[in-house]
Amino acid sequence: MYLPYLRGKQYELIALRELCDTMAANREKISPIIEPVKDSSTFKSCIDCLAQQNINFTVIINPSVGDLKDSHEHTKTIIGHLSRLPANFNNWQLGVLIDSNFNFLQISQQVLDLGFEGKKFTLIHNVIRRDIENILTRFNSGDHVEFNVINYTHINDRRRYHRKFARDTIVSLDDFFLSQPRNADYRQVGESEFSEEHVFYREDGFRGFSDFLTIGEPYSDGGFLPYAVAIHITYEDNEGVIRVKHFTSISNEDASDVGGKFAEALEELINWCDEGHVLETKAVEEFRSLHTSGHFPGLGVIKKLSIMHHIELILNLIET
Questions:
Q1: Per-position DSSP letters for 70-114, written without gaps between them
Q2: Cα separation of 18 and 46, whole Å?
Q3: For position 149, what pLDDT does the model report?
């Protein structure tokens, strides 16, 4: 099973929404994790779409980044939106980030106060907690932990820490995207190895695997006009390894003519696609349409299509 980890920014949520039909056709393979970063209508419409298609998902109720972090009131806001889901739809989990500041009593009281006693949980482990056995006992008392997602970007003890958890709940989480300081730097990189978790996760003892897609774990609120436009596309190489190819504009001296920079990157992407290197996903189809029309859709849409392509690629590669 694949559990893509997305911060709930606008185009990340739209990517999930526009892939609902594809995910519904593969619902036994996927369970998105959403860390809300803003109280928005897009967040509400996204979880509504997932529920309508009976796609399992997790929403984190104690985000660590964005406008909704570090507040009891924000947790109430998130849970309030979840309480709007149809009462007969239970195919989702409350997500809880476990870090050094995690307060079990506070979280559990909030869940009780808002009427979610007995709900299933996804625990995302970002640190090693010496009291983890007590935490698990408390979460499994009257509730149920569906997934223990271990963030191995921060927890290096891959050999032993996962022994704390029931084997059929363990999911690995890694940040495989090698971010560069500037978009222009991706032109020098060209491409890089991403992962081969889709091949080995079961053999390694995991129920599923998770990643931060082609965005990476570091979070940024801001948007700015870039000097370069980069399109990140994942593909499986001849040895079964997923790699990420970076298509980057050429005219990167200043922040002018972003549409022209996109056209430069897109031209290289389409030429590469025409050589048959990549799965023809919905996103690739839309990139082809943009190439034909010459339309620049905005930077958010480029990010959305990269996310959609990665999810559809993984769904195509893994078996049930």
A1: S-HHHHHHHHHHHTTS-TT---EEEEEEE-TT--HHHHHHHHHHT
A2: 9
A3: 97
